[in-house]
Amino acid sequence: MANPTARSGKAKRYIDDAMAVLDDAGLAPEFVATLPAGATVAALAARIEREDAARVVYMGGDGTFAEAAKAIILARERAGIDVPLGMLPMGTANDQGRSFGITSGVRALRRNVEIIAAGIEQWLDVGRIVAFDPAGEPIAKDLWFDSCGMGLSARVLAKRNREREWVEKVPVLRAFYRDKLVYTSATLRTLVLGALGGANFDAEITIDDAVAEFESVTDILVQGTIIYAGDWIFDPTAKPDDGKFEVVVLRGHADWAAAALGGHKRNPVTGDDLEVLGLPRRDVPRGRVIDIRLLPRRKGRIDPQIAAQIDGEEFLTASHYRIENLFHHLRIIVPEDSHWV
Q1: What is the longest distance spanned by two Cα atoms in the chain?
Q2: Cβ burial 269-288 (10 Å sphere, 16+ → b, else e)
Q3: Beta strand spans in the chain (E)
Q4: Which helix (H) or strand (E) holds 197?
Q5: Angle formed by the axes of helices 40-48 and 62-79, to 10°?
Q6: Are 62 and 96 in contact (CB under 8 A)?
Q7: Domains and CATH numbers, the chain
Q8: Coil, strand or helix at 104
Q9: Cβ neighbour number for residue 264 with a 10 Å cutoff
Q10: Does pTM surpass 0.90?
Q11: φ, ψ for residue 135 (rounded to 5)?
C-alpha cells in the first residue's frame, strides 16, 4: 500500500521498483493505492477481509504506516482476520523502522524486502488517545503507533504541515525546499517565537495511580517506540512490547538542552556529564494509562494554541487527554537481529 502521488509524483517510480523486487522475492504483490478523505483504512480492511492476503506492506512515511496498521486492526475487530505489517519506509524520521533496525529510502529497498520475505514477527503495543472537552465528554479519539505529545514539538509539526502545503503550490520551491529542510525551518522559527511569546504551560499528569504536577512545561511526549524524531532516545531501556509507554516532560531551555545532548542516539553524554554542565538528569516514568490535564498558568489563562500530535500528524487541541497502552495489539515484521539504528 502506498500513495502514488507522493513526492510530487516520484513515488510512482518507487512503487514500480518495489513491486518488481517483491515479485522477485516470490511474494506475489498486489498494489493498493491510498485514498483521499480518510477512506484508506476502511478500503484496505475490506481487502484484508477477503482472507487471501498473507501480509500488508506499506511504503511511505508515518502517515502511511498508521493507515495500514489501522486497517489491519479494523479487519481483526470486524472479521477476526489478522495479518502482520511489513515496512518499506520512505519517511524522513522513520521512527518505527529505525526502532527495529529498518532503514528508509530507495537504497534500502532490497534489504527491506528480504526482511519481509523472512517473515520474523514482533508484537507492537499500540496507543489509544482520547481528548475530552471541559465537561469531561470525549470529543476525539484515535490510535497511534510511535509517539504522541502536546506542546512545542507539536507546534513545530503543525507549522511544518502548513509550510508543506504552501511549498507544494510553488513548483520552483518544492524541488529543493522539502523534507528535513522544511522541518528545520519550522523548528527554528517555532523555537524563536516560543521564546519570545512564552509558550510554556502547566500540567497535571497521572501515570497509572501516580499523580504529579509540572510548572512551565514546554513539551509532553509519550513514547511507544524507542526513537523520537529519527535521532533521539530518551530512555534506552524502553521496549515497544512491554505494556507501558514512557512519558517525557520537558521544561525550559535547560531541559531542552539536556534532552538534546543526553538523548541523542549517537552522543555518549552521560548523566554525570550533564550534571557537570549544570543540566538536569532525565527522569522518564512509564505506565499503562496516562492522564494529562493542561492547566492554567499563574499569569492568565491556558494558551488555546497548545498543539497536539500523534505519529507526527496534528491531533485535536484540548485541555484533557487520556492515553492507554493496548498491549500486543499489532504484529510487525522485523529483522532477525532487531535493534535500533
Answers
A1: 64
A2: beeeebeeeebbebebbbbb
A3: 56-60, 85-89, 121-132, 138-144, 147-151, 201-207, 210-217, 219-223, 245-250, 286-287, 289-295, 308-310, 313-315, 320-333
A4: helix 179-197
A5: 50
A6: yes
A7: 7-119 (3.40.50.10330), 128-328 (2.60.200.40)
A8: coil
A9: 13
A10: no
A11: -85, 0
> In sequence order, what are the residues at sequence separation of 6 or more whose Cβ sits closer than 8 angstroms to the Cβ of residue 330?
69, 72, 73, 85, 123, 124, 126, 145
Angle at 330 between CA 324 and CA 331, to 5 degrees: 150
- In the block, cell 514512557 appears at 246
Radius of gyration of the chain from its Cα atoms, rounded to whole angstroms:
20
- Using DSSP, state whether 271 is helix, strand or coil: helix
Spatial contact of 333 and 55, defined as CB atoms under 8 Å apart = yes
Nearest to 132 by CA among 122, 140, 124, 144: 140
Burial of 8 from C-beta contacts in 10 A (0-12 / 13-18 / 19+): exposed
The three-point CA angle 335-178-332 to 5° equals 20
- Return per-residue pLDDT of the chain as tens, 341 residues: 999 988 666 789 999 999 999 999 999 999 999 999 989 999 999 999 999 999 999 999 989 999 999 999 999 999 999 999 999 999 778 899 999 999 999 999 999 999 999 999 999 999 999 999 999 999 999 999 999 999 988 888 777 676 665 455 555 444 443 454 444 444 444 444 554 445 689 999 999 999 999 998 999 999 999 998 888 898 999 999 999 999 999 987 667 666 666 666 666 565 565 565 555 667 899 999 999 999 866 555 545 578 999 998 899 999 999 999 999 999 999 999 988 98
C-alpha dihedral sign at 300, 155, 196, 222: positive
Angstrom distances, CA of residue 109 to CA of 14, 53, 88:
9, 21, 7
